[in-house]
Design brief:
Elements: E1 7-12, E2 15-20, E3 31-33, E4 40-42
Antiparallel strand pairs: 1-2, 3-4
């Protein structure tokens, strides 16, 4: 997470990727689930 910004930078095999932490449906701030890469992110507005 970049402080003061609603993005997260993720390092993967093919390079760095910036990911928006704003839900595109309801505009909520999603949370990273670092301990479960299968899930990735959760949205408190959707409960998923």
């Amino acid at each position: 997470v970049i402080e003061g910004r609603d993005i997260e930078v993720v390092r993967e095999k093919d390079g760095l990727h910036a990911v928006s932490l704003i839900c595109t449906h309801l505009g909520c701030l999603v949370k990273s689930v670092a301990n479960d890469p299968e899930v990735g992110y959760t949205c408190p507005c959707h409960g998923s």
